[in-house]
Amino acid sequence: MALTREERETFLAEPYIAALAVDAGTGRAPLTVPIWYQYEPGGDVWIMTGLDSRKNTLIQKAGRFSLMVDRLEPTIRYVSVEGPVVETVTATEEHLRELSARYLPAEKVDGYIAFATANHGDQVIVRMRPERWVSSDLGSV
């Protein structure tokens, strides 16, 4: 059964690992990779990726991307959202801290930030405005 607007937005706001998909061009399947993301109900979705990454290059070319998150328990549930890129900005340490704190235990955030700052190169924040949603809760299947 499809989720209500409130249910799908609440579900997307939980810290799941998303599958990001973006058009990879003629003769190629979409690029699909796992990614951390941030979302608050009613707002835009944002991701952080390398400035020179294949993800960013393809997203900027396509002008849009999709994210899909799912869970298996207590029921099988998923939400997929896609929409246009509305902003791309240089990532800051505050962005990295917010995203890291969403996914990592508090005691690991500072270490991850130090590692990412030293090893990941220039990063950008890409904001997507949710435009189309697909969702379902398959009950206790």
Over all CA atoms, what is the radius of gyration? Answer: 15 Å
Helix content: 25-40%
Query: What separation lies between the terminal Cα atoms?
Result: 12 Å
Shape: globular
Mean pLDDT: 96
- The succession of helices and strands, N to C, reads HEEEEHEEHHEE
Q: What's the main sheet like?
A: 8 strands, antiparallel
Hey, roughly how much beta strand do the residues contain? 35-45%
Backbone structural class: alpha+beta
Any low-confidence stretches, pLDDT <50, length ≥5?
none
Total of DSSP H or I helical runs spanning 4+ residues: 4
Number of strands: 8
Written account of the structure:
This protein is α+β, with helices and mostly antiparallel strands and 141 residues long. Helices cover 30% and strands 37% of the residues. It has four helices and eight strands; from the N terminus they run H-E-E-E-E-H-E-E-H-H-E-E. The protein has helices at 5-13, 54-62, 93-103, 106-119; strands spanning 18-22, 31-35, 37-38, 45-50, 64-71, 77-90, 123-128, 132-137. Strand 3 and strand 4 form a beta hairpin. Helix 3 crosses helix 4 (106-119). The longest helix is centred in the C-terminal third of the chain and has 14 residues, at 106-119. The chain starts with a helix and ends with a strand. The mean pLDDT is 96.
